[in-house]
Structure formats: structure tokens, C-alpha cells
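Project channel, design review

CF: Before we commit to the Sutcliffiella rhizosphaerae constructs, I'd like one complete example in the thread so the newer folks can see what an input/output pair looks like. Taking Glycerol-3-phosphate dehydrogenase [NAD(P)+].
RD: sounds good, go ahead.
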Amino acid sequence: MKKIAVLGAGSWGTALAMVLADNGHEVRLWGHKEAQIKEINEFHTNIKYLQNIKLSNMIIGYTSMKEAVNQVDAVVLAVPTKAMREVCQQVREYLSTPTLFVHVSKGIEPDTHLRVSELIEEELPESIREAVVVLSGPSHAEEVSLRQPTTVTAASLNAEAAEKVQDLFINQHFRVYTNTDVVGVEIGGSLKNIIALAAGITDGLGYGDNAKAALITRGLAEIARLGSCLGANPLTFLGLTGMGDLIVTCTSVHSRNWRAGNMLGKGMKLEEVLENMGMVVEGVRTTKAAYQLSKKLQVKMPLTSALYHVLFDDVNPKDAVDELMNRSKTTELDDLSKLLGERIR
Ligand SMILES: NC(=O)C1=CN([C@@H]2O[C@H](COP(=O)(O)OP(=O)(O)OC[C@H]3O[C@@H](n4cnc5c(N)ncnc54)[C@H](O)[C@@H]3O)[C@@H](O)[C@H]2O)C=CC1
Ligand SMILES: O=C(CO)COP(=O)(O)O
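CF: and here is what came back for Glycerol-3-phosphate dehydrogenase [NAD(P)+]:
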């Protein structure tokens, strides 16, 4: 049995705390809201994020970071990307020995264009980092908390650390693979949220399955184009954290990104949509970051670019779709086939 701190008591932190508790670990679920932590400890529920779920007694809620991370074997960082630096700054106050860090957040920081593992490495000194591992894949918290079959990937350049994380989380309902392609895993997990927002928009506009399939496949092409340019293995994008997560996020009502897009497609304004959600919609900031990156690196990302203009320049969603459909004709297998071809040879 290990002692594990899960930092972030939202949907995903809570669902992962349940997986770890099922595996017999002592789990400390840290959150910054007193009332919510009180609810977790007194009633063993976290109603705002996971309805009709009873938490195990092995999960203890904490608001004190000092107590939550005291002598733990691993720290799971499960806050939205926007809060990651602030939470790391709190953690580093209280750790003095090398600790295994697992992050589960799907985003890219606008302006710096850093992936989450990179910004964690910026905030946490090497002396307290045994390794940073990303855990990602097609995994809605709502289904994980019901112990429905789920598969994810633990990725790190340190293969031994990735395997340690695999061992912490794997069980009969939650199957964990390993990968060493951190760039591919983080880029796939972050950029699928852009495409999920777009899929919600086309559904909101009343378009059908053809549009959805087009978004998923052409979305994957532009994710792989940018990711490969950043050093990812293009084959990772065909796996769980690429195509797998694109499918689950673009086709599920559980997805907050899809739901936010759906409201936009029905005519609501972005501020109104975000207020309505009450939970993180990572794709909004990531669209800004990916759009900036595509300009900087001169990578063609028409879907990301169209969504950027809908979100930040008030372009009408239907006009954005019309514009995408009316671009000049092109071939299907462009630079991507070259990238894949080179890898396969
Ligand atoms: N919900 C899901 O099914 C999955 C979510 N993820 C990722 O996990 C990350 C977290 O998402 P969710 O838990 O779903 O979001 P959520 O919106 O359900 O919960 C976020 C939690 O973070 C807390 N928080 C926000 N700012 C904070 C701060 N400065 N300090 C401390 N706590 C803070 C909030 O109070 C809330 O409890 C995101 O990057 C998301 O993309 C990944 C896989 C699945
Ligand atoms: O990443 C997820 C599932 O794999 C959850 O997606 P949302 O953040 O859109 O709910």
C-alpha cells in the first residue's frame, strides 16, 4: 500500500482517487474549498462533480497542502492547466525528497506554449522530482467512477517511472499502458479538446454524423502535423491518447468541451457558456495556444484557426463552417503521409 496525494478535488481528481483507493492505497484528496472537503469527509460524496457516487473511507479530504503531501510516495496533479503553476508552487514548499509526480491535465499554456509536464518541471526543482509522468487517454470521470472499462496511457521519458504509475493505477476496470512519447501523449490529449469544441458546434448547428467524422479525421491530421513538428512520434496519434481520446470527447455528452461547443453552436456567447458550465473547458485556452503555435511554426491548422476566430473574434459558427468548406481544393494525404512514411520505413 502506498500513500498518495491527489491534488484537485474536481471530477477527474475524485474519480482517480477512487481508482487508487480500489487498489488499496491510502489516498489524500486535496482541494481548496473547505465546504467541499467537509462533504467528502463527512458524507463521502462530491455531489457537484460526481452524482450518485459514494467514496471509500480510504479517501480522506484535506485543505492543508502541508498535511496532504507529508511523506507521500506519489503526488497526482489533477487541477486545470490554468491552476497548475499555482498548485506546484504550494507543493514545493512542503516537499524535500524526490517524489513521483503524475499529472493528468490536458492543456497547453498560451503564450509560453508549454506542455503541462514542461511547466511542472519549471515550477518544481529537480531535488524534489523523482520523475514526471503524464496519465492520459479516453476516460470520462463519470464512467471511471462507475468502474466501467477504461484504458489510458502512462507516459514518461523515464520508462521505469511510467511503469510505477502503471502499477499504481492498473486494475480490472482501469487498464494502463505505457509509452515514452511524452510530447505525442500530451499534444494528443490537449488538442483533442479543440476538435471536441468544434464537434459540439457542428452538432449545435444541426449538422450530422458526416460533419462529425470529418472533424475527427481532419482534426487528427492537424493534431499530428503540429505534434510531429514538435517532435512527437506520429504513430502515438493513432493510439489511445490521440484517436482514442478524440473519439470519446467528440462523441460524448459527458465532455465539457463538446457541451460548451454545443451551446456555442446554438447561439450562446462564450462568456455565457463558460459561466453555465461551472467546470473547466480546457479547449478554450488550448485553442489560443495551438493557434499561436501554428502561426509561429507555420503549420496548417484550418480547424483550429476557424475555432480561434469563433471564440475570440466573434465569427459566427455557421460562417466559419462555410468558410472551411469553401477553401481551395487539395489532396487528402499531404505532409502527414510523408511523416508516417518516414517512421514506418
Ligand atoms: N473530467 C474528466 O473526465 C477528465 C479530465 N481531465 C483533465 O483533468 C484536469 C482537471 O479536470 P476536472 O477535474 O475534470 O475539472 P473540474 O472542473 O471538474 O474540477 C477542477 C477542480 O480544480 C479545482 N481548482 C481550480 N483552480 C484551483 C486552484 N487554483 N487551486 C486548487 N484547486 C483548483 C476546482 O475547485 C475543481 O475542484 C483538466 O485538465 C482536464 O482536462 C482528464 C481526463 C478526464
Ligand atoms: O478528457 C476527457 C476524456 O478523456 C474529458 O473531456 P472534457 O474535459 O471535455 O470533459
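RD: helpful, thanks. The beta strands are 3-7, 26-30, 59-62, 74-77, 99-103, 129-136, 150-155, 174-179.
CF: The two ends are 45 Å apart (CA to CA).
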